[in-house]
Amino acid sequence: MILSPANTAVEKSPEAYRTIREVADSLDLPQHVLRFWETRFPQIRPLKRAGGRRYYRPDDIERLKLIKRLLYDEGYTIKGVQKLFKEQGVQALSAAAASPVASSAEAVSAAAPPVETSQAPDAGAIRPRLADDEIAALREALAEIAAAERILAQARAPVS
Predict the structure, then answer these.
(1) Which of 50, 59, 68, 51 is closest to 18 using CA atoms?
(2) pTM score > 0.70 for this model?
(3) Hey, how many other C-beta atoms are within 10 angstroms of the C-beta on 96?
(4) Residues 28, 31, 33, CA angle at the centre, nearest 5°?
(5) Is position 7 within any domain?
(6) What is the pLDDT of residues 39-71, one digit of tens each?
(7) Domain range spanning residue 44?
């Protein structure tokens, strides 16, 4: 069996630039999310070649991993991550996240300023991550609300 060049995977060096497809696949994210993050985080600056093709540097990829972890695992908002980057600096957060002493979640949390619960929440507020039982309780409450809405809609429906 002869493999065409398209069917063979070439291993790149860690310093090699990556295409948006390679980065999106490695982070398990859609490409449009990476393009959106570029508009919100000036710290991500892929090299753009003719035709607008993006090539991500290793530093860009590390920042994208950090942003993904903060947004998806730690529960930060985009404005919250922007605030962290502004206050702590991307390099400091990246270094804290890579610390071998603490887990990445502990390192990022340690670098983040404490969240005051007495403040009124705003769009840029940093949200603490909810526990699994809290999420389950919220989902259950949402299901009950949806069921109540269905019953109310049936009660309001005209009788034929």
Answers:
(1) 59
(2) no
(3) 20
(4) 85
(5) no
(6) 999 989 999 888 888 899 998 999 999 999 989
(7) 13-129
> What distance separates the 2 farthest-apart alpha carbons in the chain?
71
Rounded CA separation 158/93 (Å): 59
CA dihedral 20, 25, 31, 36 (to 10 degrees): -90
Tokens of 81: 């991550």
Instruction: Catalogue the long-range contacts made by 83-88 (C-beta closer than 8 Å, 24 or more residues apart).
Output: 83/124, 83/126, 84/111, 84/112, 84/126, 85/41, 85/43, 87/113, 88/112
Give the list of residues 6+ apart from residue 81 with CB closer than 8 angstroms, or none: 41, 67, 70, 71
Segment 93-150, tens digit of pLDDT: 766 665 544 444 444 444 444 444 344 445 455 556 777 787 778 888 878 888 888 8
| 63 and 98 inside one domain | yes
For residues 159 and 129, give the distance between their C-alpha atoms in angstroms, rounded to a whole number. Answer: 46
Same structural domain, 39 and 100: yes
Cα dihedral 42, 47, 48, 53 in deg (nearest 10): -110
Same domain, 84 and 47: yes
Structure tokens at 153: 């809609």
Residue 154: inside a domain, yes or no? yes
